[in-house]
Design a protein that fits this description.
alpha/beta
Length: 355
């Protein structure tokens, strides 16, 4: 294939490598539907091209790999559709095609190397974490903060979070804790650590040699992992099978660290917390396809409810960080309401995959 440059993503070949560059630096390379529609068919071509030995992804601008999905655009479209009693095509198509892309990355037959330099959250996690190699730098900032905006850890979070050590995945999925390179390497979320100043040299090497030969030469020690000091407490406090139980354990822990986490959780959407905890419990035994199908059901229900729009208003639009969740308390979110987020959507509306 010839090189392809779009407004928001550049796709090109060099040697044995195929390279995808996210080119929305002013928007922290937030993922759009146009980017998904450019990347997905190109990946399919690269999978069949015998000259492509590996795929390399990174974000332009030095500040972000990909700060997440373009949820502001989805929010605007969803609000307009809700007022008219309809489902906006952008709302359905964005998540439908994003989750398909996540699965495509997870099942890609060749090594994918994600150079996670800068912010990597939400949709950016979905672009990177499913590939074989995830390279962190000293500028990497990783999080799944969806509960703070009325969503849940999607893009395959149901699959990869429960497979992290102990209860770390539950902790990350509920609290949105931000991690840097030492913790990412320690937990296996990142496979390698490379200083950002060496990334240009690394990309050049990946055009000439296989990743499994190149990456060990560039890998360095990221330093001690701060979260390791809290691992026992995380496993204990996040072992409960209810959000109320987790909060009770954090309150009883009696440390400033636990108190801050409990306070953070109490500011998040009660509905998001409850559906996220159930999602992560179910995801432990699901395949990536089953996990993404479940998430598509969940996200469609979130788009039809209120908390996502209120979360975007509070965090991204008015920035008052004072969302008025509905329901407002954990006690008001009953199990029947939670179960509805996981119910089938109906014939012709489920997430499907193309092999």
């Amino acid at each position: 294939m010839t090189d392809r440059s779009f407004d928001e993503i550049a796709l090109h070949r060099a040697g044995i490598g195929a390279f995808a560059t996210f080119t929305r630096p002013k928007a922290l390379n937030a993922l759009t539907l146009a980017m998904i529609r450019a990347l997905a068919p190109t990946l399919a071509e690269w999978a069949k091209d015998p000259g492509v030995r590996q795929v390399v992804q990174w974000g332009d601008g030095g500040k972000a790999f990909c700060a997440g999905g373009d949820v502001r655009a989805v929010c605007d479209a969803g609000l307009a559709a809700k007022k008219g009693g309809k489902v906006d095509p952008l709302v359905r198509d964005f998540f439908f095609e994003e989750y398909r892309l996540n699965r495509q990355l997870a099942r890609f037959p060749k090594p994918i190397v994600a150079l996670i330099d800068g912010i990597c959250m939400g949709g950016g996690v979905g672009l990177s974490v499913h590939g074989r190699y995830r390279v962190a730098t000293e500028r990497t900032l990783f999080a799944m903060p969806e509960s703070a905006i009325g969503l849940f850890p999607d893009v395959g979070g149901s699959y990869f979070l429960p497979r992290l050590p102990g209860r770390i995945g539950i902790f990350l999925g509920l609290t949105g804790e931000r991690l840097k390179a030492p913790d990412l390497v320690d937990l296996g979320i990142a496979t390698h650590y490379v200083e950002s100043a060496r990334l240009e040299e690394l990309r050049a090497a990946l055009a000439k040699e296989p990743a499994d030969a190149v990456l060990p030469r560039f890998h360095a020690d990221p330093g001690p992992a701060p979260l390791r000091h809290h691992r026992a407490a995380i496993d204990a406090c996040f072992a409960a099978d209810t959000v109320e139980g987790i909060l009770g354990a954090l309150d009883a822990h009696g440390t400033e660290w636990a108190a801050k986490l409990a306070a953070r959780l109490r500011k998040m959407s009660p509905t998001s917390l409850k559906i996220s905890l159930r999602q992560l419990a179910l995801g432990e035994t699901l395949s990536i396809e089953e996990a993404l199908r479940m998430e598509f059901r969940m996200v469609r229900r979130c788009m039809a409810a209120d908390d996502f729009y209120e979360g975007i208003r509070a965090v991204l639009i008015d920035k008052d960080h004072a969302p008025k969740w509905r329901p407002a308390t954990l006690a008001d979110v009953d199990e029947a309401a939670v179960a509805r987020y996981f119910a089938p959507l109906g014939d012709g509306d489920e997430l499907t995959f193309i092999d």
